[in-house]
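Notebook B, p. 112. Complex prediction, attempt 2.
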Amino acid sequence: MAKSGQLRLAADIGGTFTDIAAFDEASGRLMLGKALSTPAALVDGIEAGVTKAGTTFAEAGLFLHGSTIAINALLERTGAKAALLITEGFRDIYEIGRVNRPDSYNLFFKKHRPLVPRMHRYEVKERLYASGEVLKPLDEGEIVALARTLKTQGIEAAAILFLHCYRNAEHELKAKAILERELPGVFVTASHELSQEYREFERSSTVAANAYIGPKVDRYLSEIDAHLERAGFDGAFLVVQSTGGLFEAHQARKECVRMLESGPASGVIATQAICRELWIPNAIAFDMGGTTAKAGVILNQHVLTTGQALIGEYAEALPIQLPTIDIFEVGTGGGSIARVEKSGALHVGPESAGAVPGPACYGQGGTEPTITDANLVLGRLGADRFLGGEMRLDIKAAEKALYGKVAQKLGMNLIDAAEGVIEIAVTKMAYAVKAVTTERGLDVGNFVLVAYGGAGPLHATAVARELGITRVLIPRAPGHFSACGMLFSDLRYDYVRTWFTSLAGLDFDRFEAIFAELEEEGRWAIEAAGVRAKEIAIGRALDMRYVGQEHLVTIDVPSEHFAAQNRTAIKRLFDAEHERRYGTAAPNEPAEIAGLRTWITGVLEKPKFERVARGSETPSPASCRGTRSARLGEVFVAAPVFDRAELVASNRISGPALIEEHASTTVLMPGDNCEVDALGNLMIEVGA
Amino acid sequence: MSAVSPVLVEIVRNGVIAVTEEMKTNLMRTAYNMIIYEALDFTVGLFTAKGETVSISLGLPTFIRGMAETIKAKLKHFGPDGIEPGDILLTNDAYITGSHLNHMTFSLPIFHEGALVGFACCMAHWQDVGGQLGGLTTDIYSEGIQIPIVKYAKRGVVNQDLVDIIRMNVRIPERALGDLRAQITAVKTGERRFLELVNRYGKQEVLTAIAEIMDQSERAARERTRAIPDGVYEAESFMDDDGVSVGQPVPIKVRVVVQDDEVTIDLTDVSKQVRGFYNSGATTGTACAQVAFKCLTSPTDYPINEGSFRNLKVIVPPGRVVSATRPAPMRWWMTFPMTVIDTVFKALVAALPDQVIAGHHADLCVSLVHGIDPRDGKFFMAHMGPLGGGWGAKRNEDGVSGTVCINDGDTHNSPREQLETKYPLLIERYALIPDSGGPGQHRGGLGCETVLRALTDVTLNASIDRAHCLPWGLMGGLEASGNQVLVRRGTEWEKERPNAKVLTAQLKKGDAYALRSGGGGGFGSPLERPAELVADDVRQGYVSLAAARDYYGVVLHPETFAVDAKATEAERAALAPVHKKRVESQKTPVRRLTARELAEKPPEHPVMPCLRISCCGMVSFPFFEEETNNE
C-alpha cells in the first residue's frame, strides 16, 4: 500500500458516471474506478469509485476534483435565491444585456433569462468615473438598510456590481464588508474578485452566476471536505477550474464560477499531457459524446484559452467573463437525430434523442434514427458489444427508424442513408474543428487528432480525413480521460485587468507595478496551497487592437519586452498575431492596449505515464474477436474485430478493422494503420 | 444537370453556411468602426454567377437584397466578358443598394478554371463617407462621396487613384481604409473557402447541390404559404414625419394578397418619397416584403437564399418612400422600412393569428454625438446605440423587452464602461421603462431609457421616429409607449418636443439628453390576463400598481401585491366598456391631442400619464430630479 502523500486521487463527476483515477507515485501504478453518480449525495459516488479503484482516501496526499455540479445548477436553475446590488441607474443592465437578436427572422426569438429576478436587483447610490475617481461616494448607511431588506426577503446570496470597479474596487469592497457583517451565513460576492475587466453586462452576469450557484457549491465542497476529514485524509484538496488549472477548494467555495467547465477542461489537459509525453506540438482535443462534439486546441503544447465562456445556447447564453479553455461545441453526438423535411432536405442534429429515450437501437422507446443507429446499421458498432456487452442493441429497431424516417423519404437504400447520416455529421464536426483552427490561421493538417468520449473513436478517422489530418490518437481509457487529465494539472491563478492606453503612451512602470501586484497575489496563493509546487511560472499577455478597432487580440508577451520597455517588439508581436489570425495586419497603424493578463502557475510533480506490456507486431490471438460485416469504405467487408484490453505495445492493425473496448469502438478505414504505442495509445496513420 | 445525392446537398448546405459565417467573423474582428463590429451593420454572402443569393450571413435582416441587386447591376454594367479573375468590384450607389452611401459594397467574382462560378460579396457601413455632418439632408449630394460601379482592383491590381479619392473625401480616412481592408479580407475568405468546397466535391456537383438547396427552399415556402388562408389583407400605419414637414404624418399602407401557394405584397400605397432623408431605394422596398415573408414562412431556415422567395411577388412602383429615385436623400434609409414590415404583420393578423406579432418600437434609437475631446484635443464621433426596445406580444407569449428592432439582428450595444472611457460622456442611466409595454392578455415588452451627460461641449443628432404612431396592440391588446428624445439644459429638462428628432443640437458641458425606446404592443385583452401574472409583473416592477388596476383591472394589496380577487372581478367588469373604447380609439394610429383635449382627458384615458408626448407629455422621473440636486 502506498504511504500517505504519495498517492493522488482524481474524481470527475459527470451527469451519469463518477470517474476515479488514482496514481501511486511509489509504484507508478494508475488505478481506475467508475461508479454511477449519485445526485442526491454526490460524495457517495466518489466513495464508491474510490473503492472500485482499490484505494482509500486515507492513503492519498492529494485529492483533485472536477464536477458538473456548478454548471448543472446554472443550466437546471436550481441555485440559490440571490440578489444583485448594482450602481444606481443600472438596475436593468443584467436583463437588457447586449440587446442582440441572433435569430433575426424568428419573431419567437428568446433572450437570456437573468438568474436574479428584477425584484431582487437593488440600486445603490455610488458612482465612479471611468478613471476610477469617485463621482458619488458610497452611502454606507444605505447598504446597512439594504442588508435588512435582503434579510426580510430571505436572500441566500448577494452579488455586487459597481461600474468601473476594475479601476477602483473600494466601493465594492466596502459594500461587501458591510453585507458580510450584517448578513452572517449569506454568500456575498463582488464582481472585481472574479473579473477586473470592463463590460458591465458580462461582469454582472458573472458575479450573479457566482452568487446563484455559490451556496450550493459551497455546501457541496464543504461536505466533501468533511467527508475527506472523516476518512482520514490530511492532504490538499484541489479543484479544477475552467482553465484546466487547479485551485484550492476553499477558494473554489468562494469563486464557484471558476469551476464551471472543469469537466471539458480536464479532457483538454489530458490531451496536453499526452502531447508533452510524446513530443507532439499541436493537437486537437476532440470529445464526442451523446449530444455534442467539442474541440479544443493544443498549440506548441499550450492549451488555447479564451476570456469568456457562454453558458447555454448562443441566443440565450449567460456570459461568464473568466479565462476558460477555448472549446468549440457543435450539436452532433451519438444521439443526434437525422430527419428529412418536407422540402426533401436531410438534416442531422442538433436535436438529440438524449439518454431517454435514446437512439432507436437502445430499445427504450426511441423511434427517431440517430448517429448511433447509423453506426449500428453499418456494422461499426456491435449489437452485443455495447458497454462491454452490458446493453444489447436492437439492430432491427435501428433499421426501421433509419429506413422509415430517412431512406424511404429520400428514395435511398438503407445503407446509403446510414452512410449519408454519418457523412453529414462528420462534415459538421469538421467545421467545428475548423472553427478552432483554420479560423485562427492555424493549419489543421499539422495537428494530431486526439479523440475521446464515447463516440469520438468511432468517427475520429473520418473527421481526420475530412480535415486532411494524417495522425489520430485514441488514448488509453478514453472513458476516464478527464479524470486522468486532472492528475496532470497544475495550480493556476489567472488575473485580468482592464487598463486602456495607447501603446505609444504605455507607462511601463505603471504596468510593471500592476503585474507585480497581481503576480504577488498569485505567488502567495500558490505558496499557501496545501501542496508544494516544484516551481512557479508566470505568463503575461496583453489584450491589444489597432486604434479604432473593437475586437481584441490577446498576445503573449515575454517579460523581457516589459523589462526592456520594448514597444516595437510588442507591436511586432501584435502585428504578427493579427496577420496569422485574420490574414491582414497594419504595421503602420498605431495599436492600443485594453488590458493586461497574467497567469501564475505552480507546477506540480507529474505522474509518470504507465507503460503497457510489449508484444509483437501481430496482435495476440486472445485479442482477436473474429470478424464482423461492416461498411468501412465503399463496401461491406468482413472486418476483423479486436479487443483493446488484450492489445499490447507494438501491435499493429491495418484497416479495415474495428477495435472495441468497454465504452467505445475505434474505426479503422481501409488504408489506416494503427500501432499500439508504449503507453497503450492507439496511434493511427490515416490513409489517403 | 444531373441530380446529386441528398447527402451532398446537406454537406454543401452546411458548407456554404460555414463559408459565410467565416466571412462574417473575419469582417467583424478586423473592422475598425463600431457600427460594423458591434452594430453588425454589414452583410456578407455568396452568390451564383448570375447574382442570386446562395447564402448570406447577416448582418442586418433588411440587407437581404442589397448585395444581390448590386451584383446584378455590376454584371449588367461590365457585361459578361468585362469581369476578370482578380477583379474586385465596388459601388456605394444608394439607388442600387437601396440604402445609404455609407454602404460600401465590394463584390469579388469567383473563378474556377477560368469560368465564373459565383461571387463573394460584402456590404458594410462606413462610419463616415463625407457629406454634411449631422442635421437633415434633403438631397443625395449633401450625403457624401458617391462611387459609381467601378473596379477597386483590376486583374489583381488595386486602383490607387480610387483609394486616394476616397481618402480625400472622408473625415477619418484611417478608419475608412481599415474597414476597406476588413471587407477585402472578408470577400477573399469567401473566395478561398468556396473554391475549397468546389475542389473537394466537384464544380458541377456543388453548383447542382446549390440549385437543389434553392428548390428545397422554394418547396418549403410554397408549402407553408398554402397553409395561409387565401384572401386580401390590408393594414395601415404612419410615420411621425420626414423631419422637414414637422408633424405631417407619412402614411404606410400595405396590401397582401394570398392565393394558393403564391403571395403578393403590394407597396403601391406606401407614401411617395419624402423631402427629408428617410427614403430608401426599391431594393429595400423588396427587402421589406421579403423580410416579413421570411419571418412568417421560413424563419429558422438557413441558408438564406433566393429559393425562399420564388413564390413572393413584390409590387413597388418607383417614387415611393421605399423605392425612391435620384436625388432623394437616403441617409436615414433604415427607419421607415421597419414600420412597413410591422404593418405587413398587422395586415395578416386575421390570417395568421398564431404567427404574427404586435407592433414593436421599430427604430434603432441611436444618437450621434461629436465634438472635441478635451483630453487629447482631437475630433471624436460617437455612435451611441442601439438602445434596444420593446417587442410586440404574440398570441401565446409576452413580448420581449430591451432588444434591437427588426432592422437589426445580432447587433450589440456597446458596453457603457467602454463608452465612458472612450468619449467625454457620462451615462447616468440605462434602464427598462416600467409600464412601457402595451397591456394585453400577453403583455408587450418594455422599452429602455438612457440618459447621457456631456462632459464637454458636444453636438447631438438623433433622427428617431415613431413617437406618435405607437407600437400597436392586436386582437384587443393595447398600444405601448413610443420612442422619445429629450434634452436637459443645465438642470432643466425640456417639457416637450414635436417629434423624436434632434437635428443638430449644441449641448454644453453638463447638459444631458435622454433617449427612450418604445415598448411592444399587447396581444389580446388585458382583462383576460391571469391576475397572478399581473401581480408578478407588479412585484418585478414591469407594471405599476396603478396600471395593474387601470389597464388590467387587477386590484392588488399595495404592499404584499396579493391579488384581491373580489375587487378584481368588480374592477374588470367596470373596465370592460372603457377597454372597448380604448381599443376603438387606438385604431387611428396618429391622434395628436389639442391643448383643450389635454385639459379634458377623454373618458377612456387612464388615470396615470400615458407616456404619449402628444398627450400627457413627459413624465418626470424622480431620478432626474435627484441627480440634478446632487450636482
